Amino acid sequence: MSTFILLTVTGLGLAALYFLVASGLSLIYGLMDVLNFAHGAFLTLGAYTAWVVVDATGSLLLGVAVAIAVGAVLAVLMETALLRRMYGSHVPQVLLTVGLLLAITALIRSIFGTDALQLATPEWMNEVTEILGAPIPNNRFVLIVTAVLVYLAMSAFLAKTRYGLIIRAGVENRAMVTALGIDVRRAFTLVFAIGGALAALAGALAGVINNAVSPEQGMSLLIFAFIVVIIGGLGSFRGSALAAVLVGLLQQYANFYGAVGAGDLIVVLMLAAILLVRPQGLLGRAAS
Amino acid sequence: MTKATEGTMLSVRGLHVHLGESHVLQGVSFDVRAGGVTALLGRNGAGKTTTMRGLLGLVPRRGEVILDGEDISRLPTHEVVRRGIGYVPENREVFAGLTVQENLRLAERPGSRHHYDLVYELFPRLKERLKQRAGTMSGGEQQMLALARALLNDNRLLLIDEPSQGLAPYLVAELTEALARAAELVTIVLVEQNLRMVQRLARDAVVLDQGRVVWSGGAADLLGDGELTRQYLGVGVAKA
Amino acid sequence: MTDQMIRTRPAVEPRTRRGPRAWAKPVVLAALPLLAAALPYLDVQVPLLFDGPLGSPGVLHVLSLMCVMAAVAVTYDLLFGFTGLLSFGHGLYVALGMYTTGIVLTHTDLGFAGAVAWVAVLGLVVPLVLGAICLRVGGIAFAMATLAFGQAGAIFVVRDPLRITGGELGLALPYEKLPEPLVGVINAGNRYWLALALLVVTYAVVRWALASRPGRVWRAIRDNETRVLVLGLRPYAFKLMAFVLSSFLASLAGLVYALIAGGAHAEVTEATFTLGLLVMVVLGGSGHPYGALIGGLVYTYLNHRLGQLSTTLGGPLSEPLFILGVLFVVLILFLPGGIVSLVRRTESKGGA
């Protein structure tokens, strides 16, 4: 029983990471039709920024805060300086994000090396708290609580603010939003910034979980995030949350109760199943 | 809204639109008189909807479009709309995931008064369903919402595309009356297949065929002439 | 605004020209492979570009890799540039070719011929099955499906549940089972000719396929799938055909790659490998007859050379992918038609 609890909590922790990355990806795709590979770069950048700050100041909180800021700023720069030139050309946009992912990841590798770097986390995070006999590392709680807070904050933002309204409408029908006299480009920049910030946060937190940062972290997390986005439904914020939980839990259970790597393969099978049975994703809108 | 009643509200010269490899609009030119309803007519595929989308810049276009003296041909859609154009597209295109209230709120243009009183007067059903998600409403209700969005702001011109499509006859009648009211307040360009409606509302008519204007003049002149109507619209008008 | 990427090909296929230019092109086309085949005999030093004479094993190794990668790039562009299918899982089939060869030779009693046979069979069956699933959806969903299956392949190879792939360390080919002319440093030239032959054959097959009727349908699908439907054809069947052909050829390239590299390695299964393919075809010029070929050659060369020079170059320049990534970004922004479009521009100034 205690193993099950442990698996569930660590599964939810994984879900939290996926959600942070996937939600931004999903909104960016839903609103802008951009499949943002550069998200992987934000992830890695967030992790390494946190590492640099923690190395210099010893404060994890500051490290994470700076990572978020860096992610947001970089995302805004990327969107306004580069992506904006390519609106309307979907394939070139995707390719641009691919190029940025490769370049930024390589840049980080050249500065910090390919080996993992130790990330110093506060003692209490690595200690365990017992829940029903299961020894759960405290950092998982941090991860889950953060993700829940982000979910609530984003939901409120989307539901209550004007920009939230514009984003929700824009994901559904961008052309009509412009036909109401609204300049969607500001919404694009905002969504990109949010995506970048959340991805950087996820990268920093992944570093906390592993007590280390490495250049490959970004890519593997990104691929699973993409899968979560599709399963949840492109453009659906809630869908990302739901799919993240499903994928995270399933992955953990299958990896333990099944063979090594079974969880990862099951996730891929889940994707294949969704594509065959309900291509728009769990909470996505059917193509019009 | 104070309605302009004199002069030309909209002047279109040589509007060309290519969609994919198709040269859909091949130099469309026409004028829209201020005040009153100008009907944009033609068979299916003639290019009526494309003309509307071209005017708004929703599709890439070439040519000259002058709104009340101002050249809007190079402006992006949101700038065009901010000059005072309300758009009611074919298929309504209300935001299904948003509530009626949110749909209206989104349509509120900064810098303009928002005529909720007018909207609720014309469409009391909308007021009752403010918290309802637009996607769950009937076609008629969605049409009202789409029209309400366009009437909400101070607009100089409304572009309305086939509002009666798919609506039951009694709704069409209601819609026609709402449009008649709207026409008292703002210049309208109306694409419609329902010729009874056109007869009731339109002062002028412009006929498109295969991407070009083939006839323009008084609506009554066109619809009163069975020969012309059959030739350009392929259908006769039932005697009202 | 249309996708410049896919539309930088001539609106009309160039017709045979009269006069001296009429024979220039076929002569050049025939001469190039001959010239390339002669390279191992040339004891020529090419300073800066290569670290040694052209005929030396080291340089031949690089040239062999360039040929193999160019072949893979050509197969990739068949999907991307000519049929309009963006796949993020093409590397899976190269890996299939590499690892099937490795596994058959290492873990079974079958010889080299058996390995080749297995590669051919799997190279047909696997893309048939996976393609049938992935092609049920289009656009981005298709791209993600291919990514996911590619990732599944990567997981299988790296985690190695059946203990056959060698995991992260890769799988060396047992040289005693390989045909003698292909083994050993002395035979670097032979391996080079094999890689060159692969490139020439792959290129020829792809060109032939593109010129055939299905080839025209592929291009039509890329340009306007609805129109294909309207014509009464089933895009799905044609897309599957392109997918299987392209993947089959990629598997064969994987086999040759394993021979050149001496074994299978897990790098090929990673998403970055397929992303590299994408960079190759765009670099060269997607949707153009020899764009992918040029892109494959140039990219592989740069990746290798920059890696060699990394000790002398400092900072970010020591990472080939940084330079290539930045180059790619600049390319997308300013020269989306790739190298080929540069050539085209100078051509058109000369008048044609």
UniProtKB/TrEMBL annotation, chain A:
Compartments (UniProt record): Cell membrane
Keywords: Amino-acid transport, Cell membrane, Membrane, Transmembrane, Transmembrane helix, Transport
Topology in membrane: Multi-pass membrane protein
CDD domains: TM_PBP1_LivH_like
Primary residence: membrane
InterPro entries recorded: ABC_transp_permease (IPR001851), BCAA_transport_permease (IPR052157)
Pfam families in the record: BPD_transp_2
GO molecular function: transmembrane transporter activity
Membrane-spanning intervals of the chain: 6-27, 34-54, 60-82, 94-112, 141-159, 187-209, 221-249, 256-277
One Gene Ontology term from the biological process aspect of the record: amino acid transport
Taxonomy, superkingdom: Bacteria
Family: Belongs to the binding-protein-dependent transport system permease family. LivHM subfamily.
Name of protein: Inner-membrane translocator
Organism: Thermobispora bispora (strain ATCC 19993 / DSM 43833 / CBS 139.67 / JCM 10125 / KCTC 9307 / NBRC 14880 / R51)
TrEMBL record, chain C:
Chief localisation class: membrane
UniProt entry keywords in alphabetical sequence: Cell membrane, Membrane, Transmembrane, Transmembrane helix
GO MF: branched-chain amino acid transmembrane transporter activity
Record carries keyword Transmembrane: yes
UniProt subcellular location: Cell membrane
Residue stretches spanning the membrane: 23-42, 62-89, 110-133, 192-210, 236-260, 272-301, 321-343
InterPro entries: ABC_transp_permease, LivM-like
Keyword Magnesium on entry: no
Superkingdom of source: Bacteria
Membrane disposition: Multi-pass membrane protein
Signal peptide, first to last residue: none
GO cellular component, one term: plasma membrane
PANTHER family for this protein: ABC TRANSPORTER ATP-BINDING PROTEIN, HIGH-AFFINITY BRANCHED-CHAIN AMINO ACID TRANSPORT SYSTEM PERMEASE
Protein name from the UniProt record: Inner-membrane translocator
Species assigned in the record: Thermobispora bispora (strain ATCC 19993 / DSM 43833 / CBS 139.67 / JCM 10125 / KCTC 9307 / NBRC 14880 / R51)
